[in-house]
Structure formats: C-alpha cells, structure tokens
Amino acid sequence: MRRTGIRKFGKYLLTLSVIGAMVLGNGLMVSASEPKEVKDLFDAEYYRKANPDLAKLYGNNADELYAHFMRYGIYEGRDCTPLFDVDIYKQTYPELVEKYGNDNPKYYEQYLSQGIAEGRESGGLFDAVAYANAYPDLKAVYGNDINGLYQHFLEHGIYEGRLEGLNFNYWCYGALNPELGKAYEDKPQYLYLQYIREGLEQGKEGARTSVEYRYTYCDPDGYGGKDPKHLIRQWTVAQMPEDGKIGYDEAYCEVCGQHFRDEMDMNGYYVRHLHMPEPDYNRWKGNK
Questions:
Q1: What is the pLDDT of residue 253?
Q2: CA-CA distance, 200 to 37, in Å (whole number)?
Q3: Which of 2, 12, 35, 162 has CA 20 to 30 A from 170's CA?
Q4: Looking at the domain assignment, is residue 15 inside a domain?
Q5: End position of a domain, from candidates 113, 142, 160
Q6: What percent of the chain has pLDDT over 90?
Q7: Can you list the positions of beta strands (E) in the chain?
Q8: 288: which residues sit within 8 A by CB, 6+ positions away?
Q9: What is residue 232's predicted lDDT score, i.e. its pLDDT?
Q10: Does some domain include residue 49?
Q11: CA–CA separation, 272 and 281 (whole Å)
C-alpha cells in the first residue's frame, strides 16, 4: 500500500511538472494542439450571441448549437467564431470560389487544413495567423494554434497593445455607439471586449465592414479624434472602370441622415459631403 501511494504521488508530481513546463515566465502557455476540424473552431457562445433566433431555441446547449450549425448554419453563411468569416474569405480568394463555389464547408476545411499554414487571411474579426506573424515570441510558442493565440490576445495581448490581427473597427463602433465611445475613449480597443461580451448579442453595428456596405468617417481633430462629425455608410453602385474614369458609390450620413452620391477616383474612395469641407486625407480612418 505504501509503494502504491508513493507511485501515485510520483505521478501527481510528474503531472504538475508537465503543467508547469507549459507555462512560461511571461504568461504564455505552450500550445497544446491546432484546430483540425470545424468543431475545433466552433464557438458556441459566439454562435448563440450572433444568432438570437437560435438562442431562443437552444439556449446555452453547445451540442444543439453545433448540430444546428453543421446542419443549417454553415450553409446559410452564419458566423460561428470570431476567427473565420466564410463570406470575406470567399471575397479575398476568388480562386477558391472557382474551385468550391457555394460549398461553404469546403472553405472551412481548406482554411483549417491548408489556409492557416499558408498564412491566408481568415476574414474573421480576429486573424490569429496575422497576430502570430506580427509577434515572433507568440509564433514560437503557439505556432498555428489559432485558438491558443486568440486566448492569449483576450487575456494578455489586448492589454499589452498587441493589436495586429484585430479587424474590429473600434473607431466606427464607438462613433455608432457614442455612450460606449465615450466610456472607452482612452482605450478604444477595449470596445472589442465589450462587443463580444454584450454588443454582439445586442445587435450593435459598426464592428466591421459589411459585405453590403462599409463605414468611414471624417475626423476633424485628426487621427484618433473623439468627435467625428459625420459617419458615412457607403455601398458600391458602379465599380470604377479600368481606365480610371470616375465611378460612384451611394452613401448615407448616419449623423444628419442625408443620402447622397459619393464619388471615387483612381486614388480610392473619398467623401464629398455637403456639410463638410474638402477632406484632409491624412485625417481619415476607414474600415480595413
């Protein structure tokens, strides 16, 4: 009995030593695994918050939410994680669309089996691969474990000012939700935490570029100013021709409610709003 107890205690110490070896002095944890299947990427809480209709049906039942996603949601283009957006992935890589068409599961499979290793942009609110590539110390620890990288960002990176890979547009989110913009004006990146904890479920807008439209705004106080006067929602009506002649967008000002035509030229998009002077292009912050 005594020897059995010693052996058990020895195994306990070995387990502790392994766990201790995984945790580094700077708070990083050695990555345990990389996601291989859609289930490894699926975030039940995010899926529930992003789809209030499902929250009413399934509550917090992670298994039922996952079953719904695999049966219906993935084909409907519903987001199941902040780490991957299938619609933006399609837009970014048209060669994959030629190969997979509207077979959404194939894009998840391609991203997990090849895209991560190839360094492809995920299209998600948080691009873990871009995060790892920007910070070699994290890349050395986590490799391609995008879940581990995201967890590090939430627990450490965002507070350390490591914002590479974050595709959340906190400037526009704060402008569209001024009470939050004011509350977080000194640390606007923390609005992302508010969004995934509360704003997503509440249906708040401005978090990122939509497939249908995007937000830009004029900042009269320079980059990082806290009082954007006009927030413009833009959507493309006519694409710019290859010869560089003027095309146009339709646009709508969220502040004054004016609907107008937004011209564009070879230098990119710019807004000529009747309530605004000719903009200083060094003072613009738009969606990525």
A1: 59
A2: 25
A3: 35
A4: no
A5: 160
A6: 49
A7: 214-218, 230-238, 247-253, 259-265, 268-269, 284-286
A8: 167, 169, 209
A9: 54
A10: yes
A11: 12
Does residue 3 belong to any structural domain of this protein?
no
Instruction: Count up the domains in the chain and report the number.
Output: 2
pLDDT score of 261: 55
What token pair was written down for 216? 């830009």
Q: Which of 109, 108, 107 lies closest to 98, judged by CA?
A: 107
Q: Give CA–CA dist 131/194, Å, rounded.
A: 20
In angstroms, the CA 38 to CA 201 distance is 22
Task: Give one word for 123, left, alpha or beta, with left for phi > 0 and alpha for psi -120 to 50.
Answer: left
H or E segment at 109? helix 104-110
Shared-domain flag, residues 119 and 218: no
Q: Are 87 and 151 found together in one domain?
A: yes
Residues 116 and 151 in one domain: yes
Domain range for 249: 170-286
Out of 112, 129, 160, pick the residue that ends a domain: 160
Instruction: Please provide the size of the chain in residues.
Output: 288
Q: Three-class SS of residue 147?
A: helix
What residue ranges of the chain have pLDDT lower than 50? 1-27, 29-31, 210-213, 217-229, 236-247, 264-288
Residues 155 and 176 in one domain: no
**Residue holding tokens 């995934």?**
196
**235 and 174 belong to one structural domain:** yes
DSSP annotation of 157: I
Q: What whole-number distance in Å separates Cα of residue 158 and Cα of residue 151? A: 10
Task: Give the C-alpha separation, 250 to 118, whole Å.
Answer: 36
1: amino acid identity, one letter? M
In a domain, 13, yes or no: no
